[in-house]
Write a structure and sequence with these properties.
- The chain is an alpha+beta fold.
- The chain folds into 2 domains: 1-41, no CATH class; 47-139, no CATH class.
- 44% of the residues lie in helices and 14% in strands.
- It has 4 helices and 4 strands.
- The chain has helices at 19-29, 47-65, 69-80, 109-127; strands spanning 9-11, 14-16, 82-88, 95-101.
- The strands form 2 sheets. The chain has a two-stranded antiparallel sheet with strand order 1-2.
- α2 (47-65) packs across α3 (69-80), α2 runs parallel beside α4 and α3 packs across α4.
- It is flat and about 60 Å long.
- The two termini are 34 Å apart.
- The relative contact order is 0.15.
Length: 140
């Protein structure tokens, strides 16, 4: 085994986890250096949030523009979630810059909500679409 990942929680300043499982994982790794990281778990977007985005936002834009839903999604990633990329030719030093559509796959709830709201705003401003608000519980 090269890595071990396990759910855990901090309770009263102490790490609470399945210690037997951790011991077994460590025993199977053998001796050598390792890296330990403890990070706050962020809530991932819900299936309900994805269903709203694809079933309401993307669908409305696709119907209005005649584009297929996957093209609309790729467009929105670039239009409202763009990431700047630079490529450098090491031999000449020439820099090529571009913008790509940022991935939504690893977004937490807050980031995904902001992305969807930017997509709705774009649809309202550019296409004049009034896309209905999501269910208030979609972020859960």
């Amino acid at each position: 085994m090269d890595s071990y990942r396990s759910p855990a929680r901090v309770l009263a300043g102490k790490l609470d986890l399945d210690r037997d499982r951790l011991k077994a994982a460590l025993a199977s790794m053998g001796d050598g250096p390792v890296v330990i990281t403890v990070a706050r778990q962020k809530s991932k977007r819900s299936l309900q949030a994805c269903a709203y985005y694809f079933g309401v936002v993307v669908k409305a834009i696709a119907e209005e523009t005649g584009q297929d839903p996957e093209s609309v999604h790729e467009f929105l990633k670039r239009e409202v979630n763009a990431e700047h990329v630079q490529m450098v030719n090491k031999s000449t030093g020439e820099v090529y810059e571009s913008w790509i559509g940022g991935s939504t796959a690893g977004m937490n709830v807050g980031d995904y909500f902001a992305f969807v709201e930017r997509a709705r705003a774009w649809a309202g401003q550019f296409l004049g679409l009034s896309i209905p608000d999501p269910d208030p519980d979609w972020k859960k």
